[in-house]
Design goal:
45 residues, elongated, mainly alpha
Length: 45
């Protein structure tokens, strides 16, 4: 029980981060810029 109180969790997986390509990020930023310029809300799914 003490090992868990020390923060050691042998079965716990590290958080996985979603990787996006540079093209995906550029497309999203362009859509956000267009939405901001047109004063409309942008909804990202």
């Amino acid at each position: 029980m003490d090992q868990f109180e020390d923060g050691t969790h042998p079965q716990q997986q590290p958080p996985q981060f979603h990787q996006h390509s540079n093209d995906d990020i550029a497309a999203l930023m362009m859509q956000l810029a267009i939405a901001e310029a047109c004063h409309v809300p942008h909804i990202y799914y």
